[in-house]
Amino acid sequence: MSDTLFSKIINREIPADILYEDEQALAFADINPQAPVHFLVIPKKPIATINDIEEEDREVVGHLYLVAAKLAKQMGFAEEGYRAVMNCNPYGGQTVYHLHLHVLAGKPMGWPPYQETLKTP
């Protein structure tokens, strides 16, 4: 896999608003947010797409979701809810070929009729 925008962020070759980092993952604010809260969680290991996940990657992929949940709690939107999604290839909306988990929050994101009837408990 060639250098991507995300590998350059991991290597600190370009700046990013980093929210979390450990030995396996990095989380940073999306530069084109689609919700009031929108950040990405990426593995430091370069994996191009969901289709390229190998058996040995199961722990790092699971770790991305654990990081998302941890940040959701820390940032105060875990109970209200959020969307965590990965895109795969062009028809799936993937534009950077380094696996990444989008975390979006801060507004209802369900199907529009659901949003209209959304009631908080």
From TrEMBL:
PROSITE patterns: HIT_1, HIT_2. Gene3D superfamilies: HIT-like. The active site is at H100. This is Histidine triad nucleotide-binding protein. It comes from the Bacteria. Residues 5-114 form the HIT domain. A motif (Histidine triad motif) lies at residues 98-102. GO terms for molecular function: catalytic activity. PANTHER family: HISTIDINE TRIAD HIT PROTEIN. InterPro entries: Histidine_triad_CS (IPR019808), Histidine_triad_HIT (IPR001310), HIT-like (IPR011146), HIT-like_sf (IPR036265). It holds the Pfam family HIT. It comes from Lacimicrobium alkaliphilum.
